[in-house]
Amino acid sequence: MTDNNSLVVVGAAYLRHQINYKVIIVQILVTIFLCVNLSLIVTFFSKNSFYTTMRYILFAVTLLSDSFILIMSDMLLILSYFRFTIRIGMCVIIYTFVVLYTFVTPITLTAMTLERYVAICMPLRHAELCSTRSALHCILIIHGFSSVPIIVILSIFFASASHSLYTQYRICSMDMFVLLQWHNHVKLALYECYFLIMCITIVFSYIKIMKVAKAASGENKKSTWKGLRTVILHAFQLLLCLIQLWCPFIEAAILQIDFMLYVNVRYFNYITFYLAPRCMSPLIYGLRDDMFFLALKYKASFGFLCSEKN
After folding, report:
1. Disulfide engineering: 66 pairs with which of 128, 164, 190, 278, CB 3.0-4.6 Å?
2. How far is CA 122 from CA 159, 242, 267, in A?
């Protein structure tokens, strides 16, 4: 126990020494990523065809969700850095939205994969199943499924925590909601169940689209193979989301070994698997879509021409 305490004290001193430049780097990256996402969101609202087409509507949902996570995670980082304490009841509210929108993105990616499956394998029913009205219903369903994990996690937390805990002031951290070891096991099992279902959906869509791609010819073949590559991109995005949700469990194991290593690994995971995919994946997806790319290019060039005239 004494060794653990001394390890934390030494580690804390090291952390304070290293944190300044790390926090600054995070602020620069978050600003860049938010600017990129904002430009994609502005492009989405620039044409009627975007916000009346299901795949673009779902794409916008991932953009808004990722931007929200970028802002909230950065806010929590700053509060933690300045050792700013807040009431645990308020932290519960923040945690609720963070976990909710952490799941919104991967579930939306799964829905986008199913939309591609319908478009390629059931083209005659695509207009009926993927209408604007269906997209709005789909968004409600996505948020409904995304709320299940946080409902389970908070239910366990409320059942285990004392009433006096909610009025206490602490640094808001996701770790404070794990009061007992089995809470982590439940959370991990829940995460694995969700991603197993999503992976099965992705693999099913991939196999079905692959069969259509082999049977198609000419322009249909080209369009089908492009849809297949889109499904692969969604699978890669889901993999990044899965790694992101596994990171806290890996970091908790490393903390028991070496605090310095824990700090560096956590920082690396935060940049690589939490921040970067919130911008790079949507940007890649947006650039791959011909119509969206042209609209984004027009917006960028129009802004440049306006600045040139001024």
Report:
1. 278
2. 47, 29, 44
